[in-house]
Amino acid sequence: MQLLQRRPLPPQLTRVRLGGLLPLLVILAVLLVLVTVRQPDFLAPASLMSFLGRSAPIILLAAGQYFVIVSGEFDLSVGSLVTAQVVVAARLIDSDPSRTWPVVLVMLAGGVLVGLVNGLITTRLRVPSFITTLGMFLILVGAVYLWSNGAPKGGLSEEFRRFGRRAFEDVPVLDRIPYALLVLLVLATLAVLLMRSDFGRVLVAVGDNPRTAELSGARVRRTRTIAFMLSGLAAAIAAILIGGYSGVSFQAGAGLEFGAITAVVLGGVALGGGRGSVVGAMLGALTLELLFTLMNFYGVSGALRPTVQGAIILFAVAVSTRRFTSR
Amino acid sequence: MSDRQVPLLALRGISKSFFGVRVLDGVDLDVAPGEVHAVVGENGAGKSTLMKIVSGGYAPDGGTVEFAGQPRVFGGPRDAQRAGIGIIHQEFNLLPERTVAENVYLGHEPKRRGLVDRRQMLSRTRDLLATIGETALPADAVVGRLGVAQQQVVEIAKALALDARLLIMDEPTAALADHEVELLYGLVRRLQRQGIGLLYVSHRLTEVFDLSDRITVLKDGRRVRTMPTAEATAEDLVRQMVGRELSSYYPDRAAAEDVGAVRLSVRGGGNRKLRDIDLDLRAGEVLGIGGLQGSGRSALARALFGVEPFTTGVVTIDGTPTRLRSPRAATRAGVAYVSEDRKGEGIAARQSVLDNALLASRAVFPARSGRAARTVRVRELLAAVEVRSAGDDQEIRFLSGGNQQKVVLARWLALDPLILLFDEPTRGIDVGAKSAIHDLVRRLARAGAAVLMISSELPELLGMSDRMLVMRDGRVAGELPAGATEEDVVALAVGTVREAAA
């Protein structure tokens, strides 16, 4: 049954919306200029590619965090999840190359499972996600210490580590393409496609107004749980890359949750949900990483990182609140 | 009011533009002490901008504001408050966990030796409430536990505690139940007797006629006319607001042959808020649901949409017993629901018009292919319901209430629903958009949909319904045919007549 005469429309071109990302792109460009002034080699293909490969984990984590934040929740557990995954992977592989792929699968499944638990506790038991994932953070930290008796055991195989540290060398023009960068490009594309799909649009609407979404037939709890699972999955992939790049330690994922949240906020995504793009979140991560590189080149102590992150979060949220409340 | 009195407020040639769009254009307006001056106009006519200028929220681009005989330039709302202009917003600005007295004196508590003097605060609040004849309201009651009407009294007392001589009331009855409106009338008259001037903004013409001394009509940012209420008629006002006759206000009812088979039926439906609901809803008809607030009207629509499902009884749709356990299940069964709380449950404010219109399609029937065609279809629907926006990519929060409601409608029409449940579909919507929605509802029924429509506005209920059920205490108190009078509905709603056999 057709209830209303539909009015035919002139065909419309889909516009690419850059407006929201413009400030971030400007910041990114300025940082790039500052870095190049200090270190002209930075823009050389080899070093640029290495930088992008190195940034892949935090960009992936930012994308994962984005799904959760845009749906109106938080995921504080990703940093400790990365640590747990790296330590567990080392012990399971125990330097045996043949175990590489099974362990990779176990890690991916483990990430999704942690996300599922986060999601179910948040949506079914109605524990605020801030608390749920803080609890999960502590549980994972403690469990990993307990399981490994205080010192990481075993070791990662070279097959495992290549994802995070190797590259296609001697590529024309670009010189080298890190595996991590390829992984990132594939997953970033998938993330963008996901956000353009019906699921992605409903996810944002859930974050904007869960009541409206529910009364439009959306499964709000399920949607949010899936967001947590995606974040867990992103953490697992980040763990694979980080383990490969920097090896096994209890510090492998320390502070990454805040890095990811900072990146997402910097990318113009509203805390509380309903606004912002996954591209913005990932560019935010890139900007943050570039900022740290800059600090490094200018000899600013790495110990200042948390301070800088904190300042960025406060500043970005203050700015976006001003921008969106004034009509 | 006579011209001899010095006006309390005199606006001369007020103009205001936003981003180059002229919102107010040379508006003049006077309020005398003790006068109720109603300002009417469609949404977007400039009423709220004008009120914000009077209350110091905006500075005018041109023109002058004189208050109590002196030209004023307010630097902000606090300036205006200090000068004696209070504003009662549609949404209250109260601390629910604090007492009446604490709210009334918030920010300027009476002090003794640097500490808040609670006793004095309480006694002053009591005096204040007494002067406006609200002795029944305890000054130490916690505001969150008060009813909406009483909270409104607290808001008014709050303004009076700052010695307001002019009160602006923005849609004061929007949140009130019918019997509470009477109480507000009384209060307005007592304020008037104390020489307080009132600027009264409302969509409801009945109130405007009941309360005001003069009426100013705004249209497209200009003053159309100011007239004494005694000389105005409803037809005039509507014509001046929209340029349309009142007689064409409601579309024609369904002819007998248009009404088809029973689409939805409920037998013995009940849940925490409803009992013994029997109801048949036919294809092609608009079934009106009347009753007081809290009588179970909304609960009925929400039960049928699976928000708070029936726990007893049987629901059949097109002859098939159907369990409507969730909004999703109801949507899949062909039911659509437009909530009375548009902001809280109807729209996702920061999403685009298009995203809002696609929400139900995406959530319930996600598409793997054919998404472009679906988008085109929804864009056509948005055009068909005549949504006025800066484009389908504009965020919905920037649209007027009426246009937001049309988007919500388009969201459901995209699913071609068989049964439509409307809860107060025109609440807080301007006159023009209102009649557009009435037309839409009727066209949907004519196209074969079964429509259930709840309304607190009796003229709307009577004007739109092919027949009516009136609810009371969670039950159906009786059925009325088209052509029933307001008195019939009220009598059933408050229970002064024996329940008619349905």
TrEMBL record, chain A:
The chain crosses the membrane at residues 21-39, 51-69, 99-120, 127-147, 177-195, 226-246, 252-271, 278-297, 303-321. InterPro entries: ABC_transp_permease. CDD domains: TM_PBP1_transp_AraH_like. The keyword tRNA processing does not apply. It is a multi-pass membrane protein. Pfam families: BPD_transp_2 (PF02653). It is found in: Cell membrane. It comes from the Bacteria. The keyword S-adenosyl-L-methionine does not apply. Keywords: Cell inner membrane, Cell membrane, Membrane, Transmembrane, Transmembrane helix, Transport. PANTHER family: ABC TRANSPORTER PERMEASE PROTEIN YPHD-RELATED-RELATED (PTHR32196), AUTOINDUCER 2 IMPORT SYSTEM PERMEASE PROTEIN LSRD (PTHR32196:SF71). This is Autoinducer 2 import system permease protein LsrD. It comes from Micromonospora andamanensis.
TrEMBL record, chain B:
Keywords: ATP-binding, Nucleotide-binding, Repeat, Transport. Pfam families: ABC_tran. GO terms for molecular function: ATP binding. Residues 9-245, 254-498 form the ABC transporter domain. The keyword Cytoplasm does not apply. SMART domains: AAA. This is Ribose/galactose/methyl galactoside import ATP-binding protein 3. It comes from Micromonospora andamanensis.
